[in-house]
Amino acid sequence: MDTIWLGFHLGEAMNVLSWAINRPGLVKASQIVWRQINPETLTENVDAKSWLDHELRENNLSDTVAFLTSRTVSEFREQRVERSEFQVHCVTTVGLGNAERVGQRMMSQGESVGTINIAVATNLGLTEQARLEAMSIIVQARTAAILEQR
Description:
Elements: E1 5-18, E2 25-36, H1 48-58, E3 65-69, E4 77-83, E5 86-94, E6 116-122, H2 128-149
Parallel strand pairs: 2-3
Antiparallel strand pairs: 1-2, 4-5, 5-6
């Protein structure tokens, strides 16, 4: 893959729960990808979902779950943790240009938009309730990390 793509290979098709624009909800995927974009690429006149779907088709990645980010994807972070038979693997890209509050825009003119995209895989299957709880904990951890950096 080109340097504008980052791939997180899951090893086999797994249940993936996300709010990614290309395949939201609970889907099967063997890979999660990040597509690095230039902020000028997705203007108000561009349909982001259609644009991303085209990019995924062109790169034979239509069956993946995809994140969009203006963060340089080569600057991702990765962590693996193992406790007894339970293993967790996390890949993250972090760009804080849009760190703001719900309902209140805080970007100043000239700032680029940034995202925090987190993909987490476990070696054990999770129930629907456990997946939702894990997602909630991940969102809380992301928020706590942002607050600690202020």
